[in-house]
Specification:
By secondary structure, the chain is of the alpha/beta class. It has a domain of 237 residues: Rossmann fold. It is 42% helix and 17% strand. The protein has twelve helices and twelve strands. The strands form three sheets. The protein has a seven-stranded parallel beta sheet with strand order 3-2-1-4-5-6-10, with helices on both faces. Strand 5, helix 5 and strand 6 form a beta-alpha-beta unit. The structure holds nicotinamide-adenine-dinucleotide and thymidine-5'-diphospho-beta-D-xylose (TDX). Nicotinamide-adenine-dinucleotide binds next to helix 1, helix 4, strand 5 and strand 7. GO terms for molecular function: dTDP-glucose 4,6-dehydratase activity.
Length: 351
C-alpha cells in the first residue's frame, strides 16, 4: 500500500504517546505510523491494543540512545517526519537517577536529530522534526503571571533541565542546519493510560485500595491540568499547521492547588465507590516535600488559540470524573502496571 507520509512517533507506548499514535492512526489512514518505543517501565503495548492491527500502524522496539539503531530505522523506513515524545518523564525518578534522563532525553534527542539531518539533507523543507516538551523548562511562577513562549528557560529539576537541553538542541538544529523543527511546551496532562507514579493515577489507585494518599509538603503547589486528548489534538494541529522553527505553549487555563485537586478527587471517588462523604479524604497524608519542588506552573496558550485555532475541549471536573471511571473500569490494566517493579519503586519513594 502506498502511503502519503511515513511518520515515526517515538514513545508511542507511553501515556501521551499512545493517545497521539491512536489519533494519527485513526484520523490519517493515508499516513503510515511507526511507533518507536523501548518499552521501559512506562511503555505498555496494552495502551494500543484497540488499534494495533490497523494497516497503517507498525510497532518497532528500540532505544533512541542507540545511534546505530536510529540510523538504521531511518534507512529502513525513510520517514517524512518525526514526532518525538520518548523520554524519561517522572520528576521524582530524575532526582534519584539524573543520568538516565540525560541519556534518553538529551542524547536520545540528539541521535534522532543527527539521523534526520543526514537522511533529510537537501529536502529539509519537506520533512519535519516535532519535539514534544514541557512547561517545566520555564521554571516556577510565584502567585501571579503565566508562561508565554517568550519566557526565559529556568529549569530546576534534572528532568526539566534535560528537557530544556533537548529543546535547545532542537532549536540549534533549526538555526544551524536549517532543519524544519517545531516545539510545543505543554502543561500537566491527565486521562487514561497515565502511569500511576504521577499524582492523579497514583491517588486514584491508592484511594481505591484504601492506602494513604501522599501529598508533598502542604499541598500548596499549583499545576495547570489538561485533558490528554486535548494535548494530542494540539499536537495534530501544530504538526500540520505550524511554521518551521516555531514554538507553541499548550495548556488548559486550569490551575489547581494539589490539595484542592486531591479533595475533589476524593469526593468523586466517594461517589463512585459508594463510600460515605469524606471517607476517601481521610486517606490524605502530608509527606516530605519533593526536593526543589516548583511552586506554580501556568501556561498562556493564547498564541496557539489565536494563530492555529486550538482550544481545550473538556471542563476539568468532567474530565476527572471520566478519568476515575476509566481507572475503575480498567482494573486489569491498573493491576498489571502496579505489579512487579512498581512495588519496589513505590517502597523506595514512599516509605
Ligand atoms: P511516559 O513516561 O508515559 O512515556 C514515555 C515513553 O517513552 C514510554 O513508552 C517509554 O517506553 C518510552 N521511552 C523511554 N525511554 C526511551 C528510549 N530510550 N528509547 C525509546 N523509547 C523510550 O511519558 P508521557 O507522560 O507520555 O510524556 C511523553 C512526552 O511528553 C515526554 O517527552 C514528556 O516530557 C512530555 N510531556 C509530558 C507531560 C505530562 O504531563 N505527562 C506534559 C508535557 C510534556
Ligand atoms: O505522590 C505525589 N504527591 C504529590 O503531592 C506525587 C507523585 C506528586 N505530588 C505533587 C508534585 C506536583 O506538584 O503533585 C504535583 C504533580 O506531580 P506529578 O504528577 O509528578 O507531575 P509534575 O511533577 O508536575 O510533572 C508532570 O507534568 C509535566 C509530568 O510528570 C511531566 O512529565 C510533565 O512534563
Amino acid at each position: 500500500m502506498d502511503f502519503k507520509k511515513t511518520i515515526v512517533i517515538t514513545g508511542g507506548a507511553g501515556f501521551i504517546g499512545s493517545h497521539v499514535v491512536r489519533r494519527f492512526v485513526l484520523n490519517y489512514p493515508e499516513y503510515r505510523i511507526i511507533n518507536l518505543d523501548k518499552l521501559t517501565y512506562a511503555g505498555n503495548l496494552a495502551n494500543l491494543k484497540d488499534i494495533d492491527q490497523r494497516a497503517n500502524y507498525t510497532f518497532v522496539k528500540g532505544d533512541i540512545v542507540d545511534s546505530g539503531f536510529i540510523d538504521q530505522l531511518f534507512a529502513d523506513f525513510r520517514p517524512d517526519a518525526v514526532i518525538h515524545l520518548a523520554a524519561e518523564s517522572h520528576v521524582d525518578r530524575s532526582i534519584t537517577n539524573p543520568t538516565e534522563f540525560v541519556m534518553t532525553n538529551v542524547v536520545g534527542t540528539v541521535n534522532l536529530l543527527n539521523a534526520a539531518r543526514k537522511q533529510w539533507k537537501g529536502a529539509y523543507d519537506t520533512h519535519r522534526f516535532y519535539h514534544v516538551s514541557t512547561d517545566e523548562v520555564y521554571g516556577a511562577l510565584g502567585e501571579s503571571g503565566m508562561f508565554t513562549e517568550a519566557t526565559a528557560y529556568d529549569p530546576h529539576s534534572p528532568y526539566s533541565a534535560s528537557k530544556a537541553s533537548s529543546d535547545h538542541f532542537v532549536r540549534a538544529y533549526h538555526d544551524t542546519y536549517g532543519l524544519d523543527t517545531v516545539i510545543s511546551n505543554c502543561s500537566n496532562n491527565y486521562g487514561s493510560f497515565h502511569f500511576p507514579e504521577k499524582l492523579i493515577p497514583l491517588a486514584i489507585n491508592n484511594i481505591k485500595n484504601n492506602k494513604p494518599v501522599p501529598v508533598y509538603g502542604k499541598g500548596e503547589n499549583v499545576r495547570d491540568w489538561l485533558w490528554v486528548e486535548d494535548h494530542a489534538r494540539a499536537i495534530d494541529v501544530i504538526f500540520h499547521k505550524a511554521a518551521a522553527g516555531t514554538t507553541y505553549n499548550i495548556g488548559g487555563h486550569n490551575e489547581w492547588k494539589n490539595i484542592d485537586l486531591i479533595q475533589l478527587l476524593c469526593r468523586i471517588m466517594d461517589g463512585k465507590l459508594n463510600r460515605a462523604e469524606g471517607e476517601s479524604a481521610k486517606l490524605i497524608t502530608f509527606v516530605t516535600d519533593r526536593a526543589g519542588h516548583d511552586l506554580r506552573y501556568a501556561i498562556d496558550s493564547a498564541k496557539l488559540q489565536q494563530e492555529l485555532g486550538w482550544v481545550p475541549s473538556l471542563q476539568f471536573e468532567e474530565g476527572l470524573e471520566k478519568t476515575v471511571a476509566w481507572y475503575l473500569d480498567n482494573e486489569e490494566w491498573l493491576e498489571n502496571v502496579t505489579s512487579g517493579d512498581y512495588q519496589n519503586y513505590y517502597k523506595q519513594q514512599y516509605t
